[in-house]
Amino acid sequence: MTATEEVRAKRDAKLDELHEKLTGAVETLVSGRDWARALAFAARFRSRSFNNALLIWVQHEAAFEAGRVPGPVPSYVAGYRQWQQLGQQVQKGQPGYMIFAPVTGRFASSNPGDPSSWRRLGPREKHKVNEVVRTKMVGARPAYVWDVTQTEGDPIPEPLAPKLLDGEAPQGLWDGLAMQVEALGFEVLRVPDDGRIGGADGLTDYVARQVSVRTDVTEVNQIATLAHELAHVLMHDPKDEDARQHRGVREVEAESVALMVGAAHGLDTSGYTIPYVAGWASSVKDAEPVEVVKATGERVRRTALGILDQLDTFQVADGTPPGLARDVPTAEPKALHVPPPSEHRPAARVPVVAGRGL
């Protein structure tokens, strides 16, 4: 075996180990409570992919149980040299948390509209004058990150957290969510009780282009409901054939987005109810439940990020240490509209309404 082949074999073994860790982490997400905990954690580490957030979560938990870190939940994570850039040094003997890092390539085309015209450039190859160059992810490699408590150096500021009274909603959050709903062509209605919307907390009517939210509940509940309905508008347009899936998946996705939006604002998400994960994951045709959960988690994360990026509200830190700029290419572009997977079974008829608590 050549030196290159040996390096490749070691890398592939590490990737296999990573996939096993990730599969084990996903397999634990079989109840609404575990799924909610994972999403709340991902909201605090939303600069990372859903898969990498899960990997950090389970490895930090193991480090805490082994007495290597002082707390069960990390605050900031970064790579070895990234910590050095911030004046921190990883403590001797502290193992890092293995995650997936993107492998990127440069591609050039003189006709960007033609997918077949793109060619990959070599390491030092220059593009032609009339060509457009783009960088995209072509694979993954194992990489390591460490929590700030595994480093030594000048104190890192504690992540700020919103301070809210019980039942109080963050300032400007309702207005910011409502503006996004209205920008998508839906009217936001505040109704006095659930009797106006069939006993639900909220309702999205795709025909009338209306989103209704009951107001005889706490501000936090109203915010969560509006975020839930916004997720329906973004992800479950009944005119989209891919969105014609059974209701269980739609409701899990919408409630999960609402949970992440709330968690990113420091809201207590313990009261959220999410249907049993194993049930809807196993009901997706021609797909393994583990893969369904992973795909759903990333789709939920991307939708929540699209919402959060448009809000002018105070949000909790995203897991990146202060002063460290992360510009990591991803396999998929960030977008507001994130359609559900086409392999979901079509519903018996196109749904014309969707609602929280129906």
UniProtKB/TrEMBL annotation:
Domain N-terminal: 35-108
Domain of life of the native organism: Bacteria
InterPro entries: ArdC_N (IPR013610), IrrE_HExxH (IPR010359)
GO molecular function, one term: single-stranded DNA binding
Location of the region described as Disordered in the Swiss-Prot/TrEMBL record: 334-358
Domain IrrE N-terminal-like: 182-258
Record protein name field: Serine/arginine repetitive matrix protein 2
Species of the source: Tessaracoccus aquimaris
